From TrEMBL:
Acyl-CoA dehydrogenase/oxidase C-terminal domain: residues covered: 252-401
Region spans: Disordered: 58-90
Residue intervals passing through the bilayer: none
Residue ranges of domain Acyl-CoA dehydrogenase/oxidase N-terminal in the record: 8-140
InterPro entries given in the database record: Acyl-CoA_Oxase/DH_mid-dom, Acyl-CoA_Oxase/DH_mid-dom_sf, AcylCo_DH-like_C, AcylCo_DH/oxidase_C, AcylCoA_DH/ox_N, AcylCoA_DH/ox_N_sf, AcylCoA_DH/oxidase_NM_dom_sf, Mycobact_Acyl-CoA_DH
Protein's name in the database: Acyl-CoA dehydrogenase family protein
Source species, domain of life: Bacteria
Species this chain originates from: Streptacidiphilus cavernicola
Family: Belongs to the acyl-CoA dehydrogenase family.
The Acyl-CoA oxidase/dehydrogenase middle domain, residue ranges: 144-238
Composition bias, Low complexity: 62-85
SUPFAM superfamilies documented for this protein: Acyl-CoA dehydrogenase C-terminal domain-like, Acyl-CoA dehydrogenase NM domain-like
Length: 411
């Protein structure tokens, strides 16, 4: 397999690297976002708009709904076999890699750009694409995802949130969603709701698009995590309104659209994730050298294993990029979730007793976590969110190996 990039890809890489350096290096206007403690929504929104003004949001979209901040259509068309309408996949990979290398902050608009937008392009109406894609591309509108519920986490087909049609054709959404990332800062939410009374499992569901600014109808309650952050929340809907024209796909066909949306969750972003993982691993190795743990044969073997597994993950991600092989996403999620969780544990073990020390008291009197402590605590969730390890193994068993389906309750 040839994993090399073309000369045009490398020229694109130089442009991307230069653009990021101007803004994120020590003297850049957004340098603070690389090292900031806590979450500043105003600064993150400003960065999202900066990405949008540079044309870096939506690189994989058709040129009609969003610009690609790389090169003109004429330049793209000059390359043999290239598609001027869409930034080539190799350049999407390059941008993701350079963004990770620059330690760019997690984009606030990631849910809109990487999940909703591709689904709109595939399943949305022309009016929906015209309404929602431009403000995602410009960084002006932030989205969150209303899927999981207290009784329907990994078993998504058990959702109980309802959507009831009003006389004017609009929908009234009532129910509760949880683990909703970025919801306290989002402008819009796409909600999987049961729109056919009495329906069971994956039947009778619809994907509804609704604005979050509905006082008295939507309440967001941030959930405090082990690491002290509140990245996600519980969201309560009490008759929240979704316009009649804001059903994504057909009414009652929400399960198919929702599963299609989840398929966009892996891919190019996985390669960028591995660049960040490599940087984390380098940091753990540096800690091991500083503490002397690198001379411990057991810990040295574990560090070597983490390094080898990371390179295998990258090769597999490149091999499967752009393919539709059954089980690819499940295998990738299963592998990286466990890998990162083991790295979190290892980052503390190489420090010995010193790993228990924090950074000193915070303004509120709480202990500030070290980077290693934060990594270890957050990585506890790696094997749960986005589909637990058990769910991934079931998908591989049933859809790839052809084993009998697991029996499930009809309720």
């Amino acid at each position: 397999m040839d994993f090399s990039f073309s000369a045009a890809d490398e020229a694109f890489r130089a442009r991307a690297r230069g653009w990021l350096a101007e803004r994120l290096d020590d003297a850049g206007p957004f340098a603070d976002l690389r090292t900031a403690q806590g979450f500043d929504p105003d600064r993150r929104r400003a960065w999202e708009r900066e990405l949008g003004s540079g044309g870096w949001i939506g690189l994989g979209w058709p040129a009609e709904p969003a610009s690609a901040g790389s090169e003109s259509e004429a330049e793209a068309a000059s390359e043999p076999g290239s598609e001027p309408e869409v930034t080539p996949l190799s350049r999407q990979v390059v941008w993701s890699e350079e963004y990770a290398r620059a330690a760019g902050p997690a984009p606030l608009g990631i849910v809109g750009e990487q999940l909703l937008a591709p689904t709109l392009i595939r399943h949305g109406t022309d009016d929906q694409r015209r309404r929602f894609l431009p403000p995602i591309a410009s960084g002006e509108e932030i989205w969150c995802q209303g899927y999981s519920e207290p009784g329907a986490g990994s078993d998504l087909a058990a959702v109980r949130t309802t959507g009831t049609r009003s006389p004017d054709g609009s929908w009234r959404v009532t129910g509760q969603k949880t683990w909703t990332s970025l919801s306290q800062w989002a402008d819009w939410c796409f909600v999987l709701a049961r729109t056919e009374p009495g329906s069971l499992r994956h039947h009778g569901l619809s994907l509804l698009l609704l604005p979050m600014d509905q006082p008295g109808r939507i309440e967001v309650r941030p959930i405090r995590q082990l690491d002290g952050d509140s990245e996600f929340s519980e969201v309560f809907f009490d008759g929240a309104e979704a316009a009649a024209e804001h059903v994504l796909g057909e009414v009652g066909d929400g399960w198919r659209v929702a599963m299609d949306l989840l398929s966009f969750e892996r891919g190019v972003g996985m390669l960028a994730r591995q660049i960040g993982y490599a940087r984390e691993l380098d940091g753990v190795i540096a800690l091991a050298r500083a503490s002397g743990a690198v001379h411990d044969p057991v810990l040295r073997e574990r560090l070597t294993r983490q390094w080898a597994e990371l390179h295998v993950m990258r090769c597999n991600a490149l091999r499967t990029l752009g393919t539709a092989e059954p089980g690819t996403a499940a295998v990738a999620k299963l592998v990286w979730g466990g890998w990162h969780q083991r790295l979190g544990e290892l980052s503390l073990q190489v420090q010995g007793a010193a790993a228990a020390l924090g950074r000193g008291p915070h303004d509120a009197g709480t202990l500030r976590l070290t980077q290693s402590q934060h990594r270890m605590l957050f990585s506890r969730a790696d094997t749960i969110y986005g589909g637990s390890d058990q769910i991934q193994r079931n998908l591989i068993a049933e859809r790839v190996l052809g084993l009998p389906r697991e029996s499930r309750s009809p309720s």
